[in-house]
Amino acid sequence: MLNDFDRDLREKTISPRKTLVKKGTLDIDIVEATPVIWKDRLYRFEWIRYEFGRGYWNNKERVAHFRFTDMETEETTTPFAHGYSYGSAYTEEDRAYAFGVHESGHRLDVFWSSDMVHWDSAVALDFPSEWSLFNTSVCKGDGEYVMAIEIGGPSEVCGVPFTIVFAKSKDLLHWELLPAADHIYTRERYSACPVIRYVAGMYYMIYLEGLPCHRWLPYIVRTKDFVHFELGMRNPIFCFDDDDKKIQRPEKFTDEQINYILTAPDCNNSDVDLCEYQGKTVILYSWGNQMGKEFLAEAEYDGSMEEFLTSFFA
User: Fold this and answer.
1) I need a surface site. Which of 23, 162, 178, 240 has the fewest CB within 10 A?
2) Cα(first)–Cα(last) distance of the chain, in Å?
3) What radius of gyration do the chain's Cα atoms show?
4) Each residue of 254-267: pLDDT tens digit?
5) Model confidence, pTM
6) Burial of residue 263, with CB atoms counted within 10 A of its CB: 0-12 exposed, 13-18 middle, 19 or more buried
């Protein structure tokens, strides 16, 4: 259930807000990436693909896997979770967690490590075989952890794919799915790629709206109960534009790859994820054509994550 904007549009005042700055492309073929802080350093968690008829251009493992990359040095950790897909990450104190879809497509596993070298794992959630799982996102809420899970089926549960359901945990290892009959967003239309965060007593979720004319843009909602959702007054949160194609660290790419970036069609800003680091909000997102030409990019908001998320509602 969403809010009605009629009264707000007539009576509400909207405060000026800071501008989000797009810093440009980081890599080719990496999409669902999560920025995290671990031991006071900024990392990005990456799913390195090697399936769907395409793969990351520099995948030396020759199989899909997860890794973390130091965003200052570009040094990468030891690959892990070989064969898993659609990963996300969460860090707390000195422990790193990763969540990924098992090759069956209907099981979520959790991985955890204190050194990003040696990883333990367990089944987090096992769904019926007819379910299909995609992106996830985890945050710490009011005395518990919450996971947003993108599903593509079955149709009687998700309605119009894609759709987002929710789970809760006390320890990040054992999870319980909230009843999907009413704890869901949304059966009515395409809603994918969630990132969920808890600030000021509410859960904020950025997700991907599929729009007419082959366009995909990130929207934001917030909720207290995962049943009733308030749509932000300012949506989408940003839009594809030429700044997506600015290139960070051009020395990393060949001339051919730079030309590939600069000439790629761009009708999509998706897979948003974010964290707060040194007083600013670091945002990772994907751009491209949603048909195989996909790129990882970074944006930045000069303010706290709470300020950034709440600014779309006032």
Assistant:
1) 23
2) 20
3) 19
4) 999 999 999 999 99
5) 0.95
6) exposed
pLDDT 10s digits, 29-85: 998 999 999 999 999 999 998 865 566 777 778 889 999 999 999 999 999 999 999
Q: What is the spatial distance between Cα 296 and Cα 9, in angstroms, rounded to a whole number?
A: 35
Nearest alpha-carbon partner for 298 in 310, 279, 282, 312 = 282
Decide: helix, strand or coil at residue 159.
coil
Q: Which residues contact 62 (CB under 8 A, 6 or more apart)?
A: 50
What's the mean pLDDT in 146-152?
A: 98
Whether the CB-CB separation of 276 and 304 falls below 8 Å is answered with: yes
Question: Of 118, 119, 117, 95, whose CA–CA distance to 36 is shortest?
Answer: 95
Q: Return the number of other C-beta atoms located less than 10 Å from residue 218's C-beta.
A: 22
- Dihedral (Cα; 180, 147, 116, 56), 10-degree rounding: 70
Structure tokens at 64: 């899909």
Residue type at 41 in one-letter notation: R
The pLDDT score that the predictor gives to residue 314 is: 76
